[in-house]
Amino acid sequence: VTSRMLDAQVPRNMEVQGGKSEDRVATLRAIQGNDKCADCETGDPEWASVNLGILICLECSGIHRAMGVHVSRVRSLLLDSWDTSLCEVMKTLGNEKVNQVYLDTWPEAARESGINPETPRDEKERFVRAKYEERAFMSRPKGDRESLNARLLEGVGGESVLEVLRLLSQGADANVAETDGTNAMMIAVRHNRPTIVELLIQSGADVSACDHLGRTPLHHAAQCDFDDVARTLVARGSSMDTRDCYGKTPLDVAAGSRGGAAFEVLVKSMGLEVGASEGTDNLSDHASPDHTGSPTGSSPPGTPLILPHPTQGAMG
Length: 316
Fold this sequence. Notes:
It holds the Pfam family ArfGap. One of its GO terms (molecular function) is zinc ion binding. The protein has 15 helices and five strands. By secondary structure, the chain is mainly alpha-helical. It has two domains: 2-132, Arf GTPase activating protein (Annexin V, domain 1, Orthogonal Bundle), CATH 1.10.220.150; 145-308, Ankyrin repeat-containing domain (Serine Threonine Protein Phosphatase 5, Tetratricopeptide repeat), CATH 1.25.40. 41% of the residues are buried.
């Protein structure tokens, strides 16, 4: 069940927002170390582990798949669909940086005499499993898991995606939360860190978790009016229907925030578009009639008009 939930967090047949596959491959291979497989150094890798942020060859991708999605989540650069947030994770990390984490204690001499494209598969598999499952070549974490979790809660609000990966690889819990239920993803959301939000999701963080007010990460993105974070959460299955302790959905919260960027993202994700009515050009003045809680369903003057999106056709 966990494997299916994790696997569902990567789009397969959605519109590609990360550019054409050839351009995407060229961009990702241009990152330091990505011209070769992160594990055996076979040239021009065409596969990726999206939760590890590395490019790998066909043979090593089979080994990664065999370890399970809780360890490595494999996607093809050419055959699978990608969206912008996944591409950003890959561009921020890359083989050289990630190997600094997973091969931190591996002597340079051993690296030079390690596995290569000609190494038999069984030897490659032993090495890859030792590297990622056993974490045999990583530095020992400082402190226990509670300490790692505390550092993760502190680190997700910063800018270092690599440090977040390091903490997760050392055993920090992607779903760790403070006493009031505010979890690592919510903190990353409130600091507008969409790439870290994506990495947490790819590492098993629950997009539907609620804090003590019943608010999900999408509620927090809506309140802060962070459109990129909201877009990522919606793409990864965050519910639009969850109501907090005040009875408000993320769309209700977005409608009451300043700016209107997150509101527009949420409305468009419903297959609708927003057009300002006469008297206002502020999308955040009011929610749609269906989300105002008004018993009459009527909208006050100045409410943004919510219309069927032209690519979806008329609704009902």
